[in-house]
Amino acid sequence: MEKTVIAYYNSRDDAERSVRHLREKGFGDNEISILAKDEQQSSSQGEEMSFQNQNLTDGTMTGGALGGLAGLAMGAGALLIPGLGPIMAAGPLAGVLTGALTG
Predict the structure, then answer these.
(1) Is the CB of residue 66 less than 8 Å from the CB of residue 56?
(2) Where are the domains of the chain?
(3) Most CB within 10 Å of its CB: which of 7, 62, 68, 71?
């Protein structure tokens, strides 16, 4: 039976530790998804933000939002979700969110 587990972490370090633990237990990168607030982008309140053509490399270099999770999040992208603001998404969930937001 397939199950979904959701966790909230107060720090990037805690999230990275959890991902390492899941990998050690045999979970593959295709089974782990991550959402993280893009703190650098959200600090520019009131300015128009463009996430067009950004990928994980851009996000990591400009904000390091996912830092040590770069290997996991190679297919991730920056998304602007109404009500949540800018976020970084990685793993299978990144594709789902991107598809849903682009129609």
Answers:
(1) yes
(2) 12-102
(3) 68
Sheet bearing 85-90, strands edge to edge? 34-37, 85-90, 77-81
3-state SS, residue 77: strand
Q: Assess contact for 78 and 40: CB atoms under 8 A.
A: no
Find all residues with CB under 8 Å of 61, minimum gap 6, and list them.
none
Tokens encoding 91 = 């793993």
Per residue in 23-33, pLDDT (tens digit) is 899 988 778 87
Angle at 77 between CA 32 and CA 97, to 5 degrees: 65
pTM higher than 0.70 = no
- Using alpha carbons, select from 10, 34, 53, 50 the residue that is nearest to residue 97: 34
CB 34 within 8 A of CB 87: no
Alpha carbon distance 41, 28 (integer Å): 29
Query: 71 near 57, Cβ under 8 Å?
Result: no
User: Which of 52, 93, 62, 50 has its CA nearest to residue 75?
Assistant: 93
